[in-house]
Design brief:
Shape: elongated
Structural class: alpha/beta
Largest sheet: 9 strands, mixed
Strand order of the largest sheet: 7-6-14-13-12-8-11-10-9
Number of helices: 24
Strand content: 5-15%
């Protein structure tokens, strides 16, 4: 019984021992694989290796050179082979590795010594093997021996069946040769058949040639004409730019006389790029022309490219259809052409005004930025006789795009966010600042966003008719904009009377008359509203009424409006405003509906953004594509600082405040006392509305209500825009007047001072 028990225990221990051996082998394989991965990281990738990794990396590279990179591959191959065969063939694998590494290191040492400036090295192992063999068999013998070592090592490691490999290679070459001979025989047979068919068709072709003897031979196709713009840069005459003293914010600025004012120099703006080529090169144009013509031919459209006009952002290809080809058939495949040309979007101009061709505007692969300086120093801008010339950018054909406010005479700018609308407004303002002095042009700037036009605070050209020159600033709120525009309407009416007395019909005629009669000249007034949507949301009736009057009557009087909006909807650009703004600039918009609201046509939705615009002038039959010029905030600040250093705004008061009635007390001539006025203002403030019935119910008389209503309107507390039957209440003025009246009643101020 004891013997049986011992025998049973020994049988139970054998499976446990096998399991332990399997776990040990698995551990060896796992650690070997981990070691291979770590060695690969140390030799191939590097980085945070640690002390051991750095020591291993340096030792292997010094010993084997660049051939040490193959060591992890060898170890992984040996590990995979060991796992597959479950045999630890260490000595055989080590022998193959030493032969292969010895030969490879020797070859790399030979190459490193041959090319001394290279970084190829075989390490100490390669140097030892090569020099040892070279001392016996020479350098050539050592190289041949090294190649033999590589061959032997590969054979030992991979057990390559060389005879079977050569046999298989021979079979493949033989098969390829037989296929080639068979294809050659088939080709000869097809050529012979084609020759026989050619002989049979010769009589028929001869008859066709006889029937077409009078047909003229086609002329060889000429390559398209590439019209690259030639920049006519005008060297600006040197200005006496005396150094201006630095003036801090709190220091008083002395205003310079108009004759001593210095226009800003071009050195304040960045120079354009030094490249002389605008648009793609001739080789790129030739390749694009071929693709375009092949695409048209694939749709059976007989047309050819006759001209190319490279621009800074887009290139216009002029396609001339053959007689009988409809324009609609070419326009309808614009999307297919965009696909063939790999373009983001294509705008079709069918036809080009003044030409018998259709224009395809295709974006360039490498757009060129148009700078402000290159347009300001172009001959078309410098030689303009108008003070209100503005720089817009470059047309699609690369020519400079400029215009004149007198010819616009009012402008609407619309575009989505980040489309370049604000940069377009800045370029117009800066171009006017480079053309005219403060006594020649003034700016009424309205910026509800408070971030764009505030850069021009304090420049001498700033103007606001509702306040004097000491308190003028950029208008930032809707109520202030309404008051400024209403005051500008009064300035316009006053100018109309002055021009009537001088018997002139426009501002140029009046300035000539004023110079002859030694009177003060009239200056241009440019009204720029940066965001029209915000004003229309708050004070639509008053803004629309003032804009309508100014646009209808202000052109001849030197008043020009530039309205901007990023929401071109019919609620903002109403029919009244749109009818009085004949010139329009549309930047990239989000939909075709917005494009039709601005331009009455599609196209703005296909623009590329970043200053890409369509300009529709008052006399243009179709919009012209322009790449707007770019000016940075740094350049704007430099120009504004240069102007501010010469003084602040300065202009005469053109709208006098309403005079009081006889007796010095407001409303006294109308039978209204200060107590009644205070009671009426408190009533309006409390009820938040005003009407004759409300005043009649409070004061008990229709006549007194009418008188009080007239006094309130005369003093500017309430206004009624034209075309509207509702009173607009100015609560800020009412609050100020109530406070002053209460102080007067308590004896804190003089009566005449309060009611002046």
């Amino acid at each position: 019984m004891a013997y049986r028990t011992i025998h049973k225990k020994s049988k139970n221990k054998k499976p446990a021992r096998k399991q332990a051996d399997g776990l040990g082998l698995l551990a060896v394989w796992v650690f070997s694989l981990a070691f291979c991965m770590w060695l690969t990281w140390v030799l191939w990738i590097g980085g945070q290796n640690g002390a051991a990794g750095k020591a291993v990396h340096d030792s292997l590279l010094n010993g084997f050179g660049q051939a040490a990179m193959l060591l992890p591959l060898f170890l992984m191959y040996w590990l995979a082979r060991t796992i597959k065969s479950k045999k630890m063939s260490v000595f055989t694998s080590l022998a193959g590795f030493l032969f292969a590494m010895g030969g490879l290191c020797s070859v790399m040492h030979f190459l490193g010594s041959l090319f001394e400036k290279s970084s190829v090295s075989g390490g100490a192992f390669g140097k030892t093997v090569f020099t040892s063999i070279a001392s016996i068999a020479g350098g050539a013998g050592a190289l041949i021996a090294a190649l033999a070592f590589i061959f032997i090592g590969l054979h030992i490691l991979f057990a390559i069946p060389w005879l079977a490999t050569l046999r298989k290679t021979k079979e493949l070459l033989t098969e390829d040769f037989n296929s080639w001979m068979q294809a050659r025989a088939e080709f000869k047979e097809k050529v012979e058949q084609a020759k026989e068919e050619e002989k049979q068709n010769q009589p028929r072709r001869a008859a066709e040639e006889e029937n077409h003897e009078n047909v003229q031979e086609e002329k060889p196709k000429l390559p398209p004409k590439i019209s690259r713009p030639v920049a006519e840069m005008v060297k600006m005459p040197p200005r006496e730019n005396k150094p201006l003293p630095h003036i801090s914010d709190g220091e008083h600025k002395e205003k310079k006389p108009a004759g001593e004012f210095i226009l800003p120099p071009l050195d304040l703006l960045k120079e354009p790029a030094s490249t002389n080529i605008i648009g793609p090169t001739d080789e790129e144009i030739a390749a694009a022309t071929k693709r375009l013509e092949d695409t048209l031919k694939s749709f059976d459209i007989a047309a050819s490219v006759t001209g190319v006009a490279p621009g800074p952002v887009v290139t216009r290809y002029e396609i001339k259809p053959e007689p009988g080809v409809k324009i609609s058939s070419i326009v309808s495949i614009s999307n297919d052409i965009a696909l063939a040309m790999k373009a983001r979007g294509i705008r079709v101009e069918a036809p080009i005004p003044g030409k018998d061709a259709i224009g395809f505007e295709i974006p360039n692969d490498k757009p060129v930025m148009v700078t402000m300086r290159e347009i300001l120093q172009d001959a078309s801008f410098v030689n303009s006789k108008y003070k209100t010339a503005v720089a817009l950018g470059r047309y699609a054909d690369g020519l400079p795009a400029t215009s004149v406010l007198e010819k616009m005479p009012h402008l609407l700018i619309a575009g989505a966010t980040n489309s370049g609308k604000s940069i377009c407004v800045h370029s117009i303002i800066i171009s006017l600042l480079y053309r005219a002095k403060p006594d020649e042009i003034k700016f009424l700037l309205v910026d509800p966003k408070r971030v764009e036009l505030t850069l021009y605070e304090g420049i001498p050209h700033l103007y606001d008719p509702k306040t004097d020159c000491e308190d003028v600033s950029v208008v930032k709120d809707a109520n202030g904009a309404v008051k400024s525009l209403q005051a500008l309407v009064k300035v316009m009416e006053k100018r109309m009377k002055i021009f009537e007395l001088a018997k002139v019909k426009n501002i140029e005629g009046y300035n000539a008359w004023a110079e002859k009669n030694k009177e003060e000249k009239a200056f241009y007034i440019v009204v720029i509203i940066d965001e029209m949507a915000d004003l229309m949301l708050q004070t639509k009736a008053a803004i629309e009424d003032s804009v309508q009057r100014l646009t209808q009557m202000g052109r001849a009087l030197g008043i020009h409006l530039i309205l901007c909006t990023q929401r071109p909807s019919t609620n903002v650009i109403t029919g009244v405003i749109k009818a009085n703004l004949p010139s329009r600039i549309a930047l990239q918009v989000t939909s075709k509906i917005d494009s039709r609201v601005v331009l009455d046509a599609n196209g703005a939705d296909a623009l590329l953004g970043k200053g890409d615009m369509l300009y529709l002038g008052i006399s243009d039959p179709k919009p012209n594509r322009i790449q707007g010029c770019y000016i940075s905030e740094e350049e704007i600040t430099k120009v504004a600082d240069f102007l501010r250093a010469q003084g602040g705004p300065d202009y005469p008061v053109q709208v006098q405040p309403e005079q009081n009635a006889p007796g010095g007390r407001p409303g006294e001539g109308l039978g209204t006392s200060p107590e009644e006025l205070l009671s009426a203002l408190n009533l309006i403030k409390t009820r938040r509305r005003v009407s004759q019935d409300l005043l009649k119910a409070n004061f008990g008389s229709s006549a007194r209500a009418t008188n009080i209503l007239s006094v309130l309107e005369m003093k500017g507390f309430i206004t009624k825009p034209e075309g509207s039957n509702r009173w607009e209440i100015h609560f800020d003025a009412i609050d100020a007047q109530i406070e002053e009246l209460q102080k007067m009643q308590s004896g804190q101020t003089q009566y005449d001072t309060v009611y002046k």
